[in-house]
Amino acid sequence: MKFKATEDQVKNLMAVAVNASKPMGLGFVSYTDKVFAVDDFDLIGHLDYVEGRMVKLYIFRELGDDNWSVNKYSHFNNIPNIGYNSWASIYPTYEELFNAAGIVEFENS
Predict the structure, then answer these.
(1) What's the gap between Cα 39 and its chain centre?
(2) From CA 106, how far away is CA 6, in angstroms rounded?
(3) What's the alpha-carbon Rg for the chain, to the nearest Å?
(4) Residues 18-51: pLDDT tens digits?
(5) Would the pTM count as exceeding 0.70?
(6) Are 55 and 47 in contact, with CB atoms under 8 Å apart?
(7) In this predicted model, what pLDDT tens digit does every residue of 57-74 receive, in sequence order?
(8) Whose CA is closest to 45, among 104, 77, 3?
(9) Which of the residues 24, 27, 36, 76 could staple to 52 if both were Cys, CB 3.0 to 4.6 A apart?
(10) C-alpha atoms less than 13 angstroms from C-alpha of 82 in its C-beta half-sphere
(11) What are the C-alpha distances in Å from 38 to residues 16, 63, 96?
């Protein structure tokens, strides 16, 4: 899925996804109840497990200003797999996750 966003919006997307995620599996061993903020992230954008929370959100910078994409890990018909994307229990679609982060320009692909 491709989207347009500023760097701060991308960092906010990461914070929203992590804060909505839950510990799963052995993630309970390293889980903290920290609330993450925009400043806690850089633009690497590969969120697998974050302090025990299973996020599975991979963000890539595309060519051109403010062009990004996400690798929809373990999804079916553009619906996140709650077994991998634990944030989907709060934001059941990528569109809802993006909207929560203030990102409104995106396309399903």
Answers:
(1) 15
(2) 13
(3) 13
(4) 999 999 888 889 998 999 999 999 887 789 999 9
(5) yes
(6) yes
(7) 999 999 888 999 987 655
(8) 3
(9) 27
(10) 7
(11) 9, 23, 18
Using the structure block, give the residue that is written with the tokens 């914070």.
Answer: 15
Sign, CA torsion 72/80/41/69? positive
Q: Which tokens in the block code for residue 25?
A: 């599996």
Q: Which amino acid is at 1?
A: M
* DSSP 3-state of 107: strand
DSSP 12-70: HHHHHHHHH--B-TTHHHH---PPP-GGG--S--EEEEETTEEEEEEEEE-SSTTEEEE
d(C-alpha 62, C-alpha 2), whole Å: 9
Residue 37 CA: distances (Å) to CA of 6, 11, 15, 40, 41: 16, 8, 6, 5, 8
